[in-house]
Amino acid sequence: MLLGEYSSQVGEKNRIAVPKKIREELIGKIVVTRGYEGCLILVDDLRWTRLIEEVNSKSLLNLSVRDTKRFLLGGAVEVEMDSQGRFVIPDSLLNFAHIANTAVFIGVGEWAEIWSEEQWNKKLDLLKDNVSDLAERL
Description:
Elements: E1 2-9, E2 15-17, H1 20-23, E3 30-34, E4 40-44, H2 45-56, H3 63-74, E5 77-79, E6 86-88, H4 91-97, E7 102-109, E8 112-116, H5 117-137
Antiparallel strand pairs: 1-7, 2-6, 3-4, 3-5, 4-8, 7-8
C-alpha cells in the first residue's frame, strides 16, 4: 500500500526521485498522469490496469466517462526509473501540476499523488480546517 508524505527536488531535465518507501511498492511499469485537484497520479502497471478497468466498466454513452478517459488517458505517460529511482516528468504534466523546484509525494493507498509544494500546503491547510466535516460526510 502506498502511504506517507515525502518531498523531492525536481532536478535538471525535469528529473525527480521517487521516495524509497513509495518506490518499493511499485512493481513493473510506472504510469504518471493528470490527477484531480491539480496533482499528478503515479501508479504501477497493475494499479493502472485496475483504474482503467473501473473507468471502462461504465457506459461510453455517458459524457462523464468519456471526459474521465480523456483526462486520465490523454495525459498518461509510461516512465522509466533509473537506478536511483528517478524519472523525467514531461513538461505538460509539470505545467498541469504547477511543479517547479519541489514536489511532494503523497501515498494514498492505491496510488501516489505528486503535488507542487505550494499547492499541497494549500490543500493540506484546507483539509486540516475541514477534517471533522469530511469524516462526517463519509
